[in-house]
Amino acid sequence: MNSLASAPTISIEKKAATRRVETRSQEPGRQNPKIAIVGGGPGGLMTAYLLQKKAGRALSISVFEAADRLGGKILTPQFKMAPVNYEAGAAEFYDYSPVDEDPLKELIQELGLPITKMGGNGVSLKGHWIGNLDDLEAHLGPGARQQWVRFHQQTRDRMTPLDFYLSGSEESTPSPKVCDSRDSFAECLKSIESGELRHFIKTQIHSDLATEPECTNVEYGLQNYVMNDPAYMQLFGIEGGNERLPQELVRRTRADFRLQHRVHSIEKAESGQFEICYSKDSDKQYEAFDYVVIALPHDALPHVRFEGHRLQAAMQSHYEHYHHPAHYLRLTLLFRSPFWQGKLNDSYCMLDDFGGCCLYDESSRLVEPEFGVLGWLLGGTEAIEYSKLSDSQLFELALNSVPKFLGDARPHFMEGRVHRWLNAVNAIPGGRTSRPIHQRHCPEPVDNRELYVVGDYLYDATLNGVLDSADYVSSGIAAAVHFES
Amino acid sequence: MQAEKTISSIKSTSQFASDDLEIISELSLEVWEIEFANQKSLPPNAYGRPFGSQRQQHIVRKKTTSTHKLHRQDIEGAGLTLVMVPDDASLGMATVQRLQDWLERRESEDSFARPQLLALQGAQIVWHPQCVVIMVPANRVQTVCQAVLDGYFYEAELRSIEAALEGNWENTLGDAPLGFEFNATAVSRRSELAERFQEVLKLRTRLARLTSNIVVPHVYPPTLASQIGERLRERLRMEERLELVEGKLEVQEHVYEMCSHRTSEYMVARTGHHLEWVIILLLGFQTILWIVDLLSTATP
Asked: Residues of A with CB below 8 A from B93's CB?
C-alpha cells in the first residue's frame, strides 16, 4: 500500500504573469458547448462518441492526446519482418452477455466490427500440462481434485455470476463470505490445503491479477479467478486487431483530435469556464472550455496541475484513493510457421514460467495463418523485474519457456517485440472502499461540477469498466447541455 | 484398450496403402462395432455408464476386432464403427490423418458428412457419421470413448430429426391448401392428415427431449469428458442446427394445426348440415301427414 507521504502531490502553481488566453466564448455568436477531453485512450474516445450520440445538439469536442496516436492501451502494431499484426496492449474483450447486457459488446457490434471467440483452459505446471480435472488428478492426486471442486463451489457461493457482473457498480450487494473482505486474496487461498493446487490457481490467474495475491483484496482476487468459468464471462477479440475499436470510434466522432498536445494545467476561471494550458512542442497555449473530462490513466494524473485549492485537494484525494498500481509486460514473438498447431488448440494457456504468465496463440485468431505469433503476458512484480532486462534477454527467456510438447521454437523464430506497461492498471480497482458513483466521476462537485473523471480504475480495470465510466459522464454532460439549451 | 504396436509383416514401408475401398495400417487398429440400446435394464456387452433421459440409453459393444486392414464395408453397417488407434509417438498421428483422408475420399461434394478432426487435451478424434477414429493415451480411453459416444448418439438423433423433417416437406406443401379450405373431396384424407400430424408431434417430443442434452451449461472446472462434449457440440454446430430444426418444425406443426382446425370445422358444419336436412325432411313429412289428416276430416 502506498503511503500518502510517498504519493506524488498535485501542486498549485501561481498563474503566469503573461499568457495568451483563447476564450472562444468571447467570440460573437458561439453557441455550441465546448468540451475538452484530456486523454485519447479508450475512455476519452468512448466519452467523445457517446457525447455525440446523446447530446442531441452540436457540441465542440476537443480531445487532447500527448502521444502521437490515439487508442491508449488498445494497440495492434505490426512486425517489421512480416505484415503480421499482434496485440501489444489489451489482449481480449470480456463478454458478459451470458449473464446480462453487455454494453461493450453491443457497442462493438454497433460499430460493425466482427468478433472471434477466444478460450483456453490449460495450465503448464513444471512441464506438466493440466487442461482439466482429469489432468489435475493425474498430476496432483484425487485430493487436489476434490479441493479444487470445493474451492470453486465456495467461490461460486461467495460470488454468483450476477454478483460478478455487478461488481464495481452501486447495484452490487454483499453476499455470504468465505473469507473476511478485509483479508488479502492470499489469505483466501490459504483455505486450499494443497500447496501445489494453490500454486496452480495462482498461475492460472496471475497474469489477470497483475499483482501478487497479498497485494489485492478478496473481491478482486475472486473476480480474476471466476473469470475462467464460462458461466461468468467469456472472451472475444476483434477480427483484424483490437485497435479497430478506437479507430472506428475516431472515424465516427466529429471532434478535434489534437495529437502530441500535452495538457499542463486546468483551472476554473472567473467566467465559469475551465482554462486549459497545453502545449505542442514547447509552445504553451491556453483555451477555455465549458466542460472538462479527465480520461487519463491513473498514473498520468500527477502530470496535470489542478489549480485552485478545492480542486487540487479533491484531485489529490481522488488520486490517492485509487493509487494501487499494477503492472504488465508483453512479449510477442513472430515465427516462420505456427509449429504448435494441433498441439495447442486454444487461444491461450497459462505457464508457470515468469512467475505465472499467459501464453497467447495470436495466430489462432486467423483462419489459415502463414506465420505463427505467440504472446506472453506477465503481471505483478515479475513484470517490473523482467522489464529491467533487455529485449534480447527477454526473447531468450521466452523461447526457453515454450512448453516442450509444443515443439522447438528456436528454429522458427524471426522477430520479437516488447511492450512495458508499468503502473498501467490498478491492483484494487475501485479503491479499498467503493466511493459513490457520482463522487468517483466528479471529485469536486461544489465549485467544479463541470469537471469529470473517466477511467477503468474507477470500476474493474477493464474496458467494460471504462465504457461504464464514459457512459455515466457522457450522460451527465449531455443532460447538462440539454438543460442549458 | 492395450496400446499395442505391431509392425505388420505385410508392410515393410512406412507408407500407407489405401484406395477408396480399403486402407492398410502399420499399427494394429482395434475396431468396435457399436449399437445404441434404448432400454431400462443393462444389456449384455454394455460399455460405460448409461446416459440420456432417465438413463435408458446404453452403449453396446457388439464386436471387437484387431486388424491392420479396414474395408469400406466394415463401416457401412447400420450402427457406428469406432476405430481405436494406438497412442504411438511416431506413427499415431500419421495413422489418424490417413484415416481421416480415407473417410473423406468417398464423400461427394454435396455431402454434409465430412469427417472432422478434433485435437483436444492430448486426444485426437476424427468424427464421421459412420465411423469415429480415436487416438488417446491408455488411461483416458474410457473417458474419451464415453464422451464421444454420448455426443455421437445425440448428434445422430438430431440428424435423424432433420432428415425426417426434410422428408416431410413434400407432404406438408401438398397439405397446406387444406389449412385454408377443406372440402368434400378431402374428407377421405382425414385419417392420413391425422397420421401426419401425429408424426410431426412425435418429432416435437423427440426434439424436446433432445434439447436438454444439447443446450448444456458449461462445466467448470472442466473434465475431459465435458470438454470433448462441448467441443463436439460446437464443431458440429448442434445448437445452431437445433434452432433451425425448431423453426422448420414450427412451420410443419402450424400447417397441420390449421388443417386439423379446418377439418373439424368442416365436419361439424357437415354434420350440422345433415341434421338440418333431417329436420327439414321430418318437418315436411309432418306437414304432409297434417295435410292428409286435414283432408280426411274435411271430406264428408
From this structure: 342
Spell out the domain ranges in chain B: 17-136, 145-287
Rounded to the nearest integer, the mean pLDDT of chain B is 85
Fold classification of A75-241+325-427 is FAD/NAD(P)-binding domain (3.50.50)
A138 CB contacts (<8 Å, ≥6 apart)? B139
CATH code given to domain A21-72+243-323+432-484: 3.50.50.60
Cα angle value B232/B235/B240 (rounded, 5°)? 105
Task: Please give the DSSP secondary-structure letter assigned to residue B33.
Answer: E
Residue in B with minimal Cα distance to A151: B221
Write the residue in B119, B218, B224 that is nearest to A342 by C-beta.
B119
Contact between residue A208 and residue A379 where contact means Cβ atoms under 8 Å apart = yes
For residue B10, the one-letter residue type is I
Question: What confidence score (pLDDT) does residue A424 get?
Answer: 85
Residue among A136, A152, A342 whose CB faces B220 most closely: A152
For residue A11, pLDDT over 70 is answered with: no
CB nearest B218 (choices: A149, A152, A231): A231
Average pLDDT over residues A248-258: 96
Q: What is the ipTM of this complex?
A: 0.75
Element (H, E) at B294: helix B238-298
Sequence ranges of chain A with CATH classification 3.50.50.60: 21-72+243-323+432-484, 75-241+325-427
Nearest chain B residue to A229, by CA: B220
Q: Can the peptide bond before residue B221 be classed as cis, meaning omega within 30 degrees of 0? A: yes
Chain B contact present for A122, CB below 8 A: yes
